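Example 3.
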Amino acid sequence: MNPLYSTYPVHIENSLTGAKEQLVPVSEGRIGMYVCGPTVYSDVHLGNARTFTSFDFIFRYLSHLGYKVRYVRNITDAGHLENDADEGEDKIAKKARLEQLEPMEIVQRYTVDFHKVMDRLGALPPSIEPTATGHIVEQIEMTQAIIDKGWAYESNGSVYFDVDAYNRDGGDYGVLSGRKMDELQSGSRALDGQEEKRNPADFALWKKASPAHIMRWPSPWSVGFPGWHLECSAMSTKYLGEEFDIHGGGMDLKFPHHECEIAQNTATSGKKGAKYWLHANMLTLNGKRMSKSTGNTILPGELFSGNNPLLAKGFRPSVVRFFMMQAHYSSVLDFSNEALLAAEKGHDKLLAAWSKLQGLEASGSGDFDLQAWIDKCYQSLSDNFNSPILIAHLFEAIKLINQNEGSIALSASDLSVFKEKMNAFVFDILGLQMEEGGSAHSEALDKAMDLVIELRAKARENKDWGTADLIRDQLSAAGIKLKDGAEGTSYEI
Amino acid sequence: MNPLYSTYPVHIENSLTGAKEQLVPVSEGRIGMYVCGPTVYSDVHLGNARTFTSFDFIFRYLSHLGYKVRYVRNITDAGHLENDADEGEDKIAKKARLEQLEPMEIVQRYTVDFHKVMDRLGALPPSIEPTATGHIVEQIEMTQAIIDKGWAYESNGSVYFDVDAYNRDGGDYGVLSGRKMDELQSGSRALDGQEEKRNPADFALWKKASPAHIMRWPSPWSVGFPGWHLECSAMSTKYLGEEFDIHGGGMDLKFPHHECEIAQNTATSGKKGAKYWLHANMLTLNGKRMSKSTGNTILPGELFSGNNPLLAKGFRPSVVRFFMMQAHYSSVLDFSNEALLAAEKGHDKLLAAWSKLQGLEASGSGDFDLQAWIDKCYQSLSDNFNSPILIAHLFEAIKLINQNEGSIALSASDLSVFKEKMNAFVFDILGLQMEEGGSAHSEALDKAMDLVIELRAKARENKDWGTADLIRDQLSAAGIKLKDGAEGTSYEI
């Protein structure tokens, strides 16, 4: 049998070319995908959580199609300076200083939190999760290789990528972002240490550590630390090869981070790294940019708990994921209480239909064209991972499921295929989660107890003391306490 | 107020001296603790899970006493060779070869699993969790430092620690294990590559990689990889200093791993690393050594699920933890179905008493000497972390709790202290977990549904069709289905 990926070939909007292109893997049947992970110095931002959820969905879909996917998502635990440029304090070291901890204690705390949030959002762990500090040797080697080619220079113990020299020799710095060299040079801010650079557009491959900088390693140039852009070049090519398939990240990383990666990769090996560059879009909150200073901000954990003044209630992680999947990864997504409430309804309707489907019997063929529906679903996914269109198709399927009570207008063999595909689309690919047994049981318990309370009231009304006593004794043995109050009877365990 | 650690000073059985000694931290009020973590090439062994649970308990207790604890537990993701000596294949690389994966994919899979198992067992994440591959630079530096002192030599691209030279210059290789040099030399097996060593007791600091070895880094001596023993010396001293407080690990690591660590540390800095060396003991299964080949083996996940022919049922992770805590960390612990069933009873009795305590009212002082009880509990913990004795004291407290129905023979202020201490001992220190809401709700639902089913049977018997219909309709609206079968009525959601 042909693998699904040949039946439904994937097309990707490639940021590098601006065109939608067919995905042709470097190595038949295999996909190498690299996604820039979080800098672990604070709680993961909702925007980042969305980006990683988008690429989890892409990872899931490519795996489902039959590709053997190696998905590498890094942890930035050093080298990311405050202003995202080449000056300022290391973000992690600064947090460590403020909290009087070893930087690696900060890294550990926020890595653990990050994993928890992504796990709740139903994101699978990547295949490899390398760290910047775990690849100092590789970064030093890459820096040396670029110096050897003549496209980087040492200045006062730091090493900078020489953008002018690289472009003079045929390099194409600006190829991803479309920025021109003259804009880049005039647009650069005057920052401390810029005097070390030959050109304001140059960027650091290695930085000499100031005496106060605690995260430091020996190198041929100074005791220092690698530049932020370098780690992703070193780790992606180490685990995926000089040329691999997909490189993803948030839109904000397109420039300068990914532009610099491409330049570093090309300078080292003549290859850009990834063939296809994908960028997940930003999110807004109530129509405005998220911003801590104005209070227009929300953390993933607050979304789940409802513990934020902008929210009326908490939302289950699977609902949040469904909400994210309702937008295309490359579109801006606006979070609001209302939009989440609407997503919750849609999510629950979809999962209720799925549950109902499990108990339906095949009542013979109707006019639902199953194969056409399956094709449409796959085609939407293979068309640049269009999750909102897939969800629209799933809602057509809900209509079919809800048409009759105990049966569905499909042949027995079609029903079995339909169940299998619904399962794949809803759980394996979109990554939604049925509520854990716990929550389903809590709800059922609420309802069962409503019934018990009503039966007790009825028994009392009828002076049926035998039944009333039976209820009292059995509940007490079960550790359930009834509380009669002004607003009726409630229970607690 | 004095910190608890001055009221109840901790005494530790120190493997290095063989004596029980008072814990005097290197830095007042702070503890640095290093524990050798797992080699992530397979599911975590139950024995390792026990070791890490023991040190989690010690970490929790020291933190509770008011120490600021930095707890470092590493991940061995390279350099651990098959026979634990200096030859054979890298354990992770071998698994990667067998499964046709990149070694770091093996590392990621088993690191994720390891974290899940430890999380279920109620173990807190350590403060820092460094990896061997993340500290290649530091290991190369340490190797160079030992060569510079004259206690290591290069041979054919590999570097070995020179045990004879080190001991001749006043070193004390054998100090931890008590082994004598002559035993060590005659006891060594003749392995490939031993001819590179001057002395069979010498051990590798750096190994030149064979062409087939895929995990490799450049070094002054060869492209290769660090020796297994070296990573713990490099990482413990990097994050805790040349001299720190506690070094822990399983008994099987005492020799050669910890012996070599002490030699490496001393050779580098003149200090042994930790002042106190602690060793958690092994476990047996049904009285015999665990062994895959005889089938006398069990994984933590199988303990939880019951999915192992040696088990009658699964055990909640908190029950497994309680079972482990019933033995002292330095004693051999025998796992068996019967012992786990007994532990389950004890665990549930303890947690039921704790739940009951929350609802009790103070009925004035009785003859329970609260302060004496608190002192006994702390003293048992401070006496080399004696968890079984603590548990015995907790069972005395259960008697007090269960003496009367709605009240307890304590003054109101004592009751509040008692609750606080019970909470600390049971949850903060022993690390037990109440069942999640989910399970409690499932149980309550079972019991509420038993009641509903009984009421329905009664209604039918009495031809009370109104009640029978009410029950049927409300259950159906709640999504609960009753199933009448030969063995009575059951329900499903």
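Residues 437-492 of chain B form one domain. DSSP finds 17 helices and 17 strands in chain B.
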